[in-house]
Write a structure and sequence with these properties.
Layout lengths: L10 E5 L5 H8 L13 H9 L3 E8 L2 H4 L4 E6 L7 E9 L8 H16 L4 E7 L3 H9 L3 E11 L9 E10 H9 L7
Parallel strand pairs: 4-5
Antiparallel strand pairs: 1-2, 2-3, 3-4, 5-7, 6-7
Length: 189
């Protein structure tokens, strides 16, 4: 007997403020997240807050929506792209929140934002091939693999002799998103 996935906690994405950046950097540089991302310097996050082509959000879930606690952050890039190609640049959640549907709820909310609010034609991302959990999530959410950038990123903490990973490029087109909506696949659980 298979039990249904637990319902994710209520979720909110709020614009990141400068006062949030210490927590953003703490979450990003958590040793449990480092294998899956390439951290930014604080100045890169500050720039993303100012540049209109970016959207930088703090993730607040469940009771944390009222308490101001930060469960993670997300960054969209290409929000003013003339080709209407929006990138999910970064999604980083606190590792304690994993396995409860928060990532899936976040991805669904971001798809709704990309295709609804930003009128994207294409919503895309890249993910390290070692991040099997993220690859499975994105595939189950309708993202299609477009290709791989072989050994394009260094793995944090590895020496010069080894330590490269490939990036998997995945995307979803607006018509694919609309088809998923028509089938009832895009509800926020």
């Amino acid at each position: 007997m298979t039990l249904p996935d637990p319902a994710p906690p209520p979720l909110r994405l709020r614009p990141t403020m400068l006062s949030d950046l210490d927590d953003v950097i703490r979450i990003e540089t958590d040793s449990r997240n480092l294998p899956f991302i390439t951290p930014w310097e604080r100045t890169q996050h500050e720039a993303a807050l100012r540049i209109p082509d970016f959207r930088h959000f703090v993730v607040e879930a469940g009771d944390n929506r009222a308490s101001g606690s930060r469960d993670g952050f997300v960054i969209l890039q290409g929000c003013r792209n003339p080709h209407r190609s929006v990138e999910l640049k970064r999604i980083v959640l606190q590792r304690e929140g994993q396995g409860h549907g928060l990532g899936r709820a976040c991805v669904r909310l971001l798809k709704r934002m990309a295709f609804g609010d930003l009128h994207a034609h294409r919503f895309w991302l890249d993910v390290k091939s070692l991040d099997r959990r993220a690859l499975a999530l994105y595939a189950s959410e309708g993202f299609v693999e477009e290709g791989r950038l072989r050994e394009s990123v260094r793995i944090t903490g590895m020496d010069d002799a080894a330590g490269y990973d490939s990036l998997v490029v995945m995307s979803m087109l607006d018509r694919e998103y609309q088809a998923r909506c028509a089938l009832g696949c895009e509800g926020l659980r």
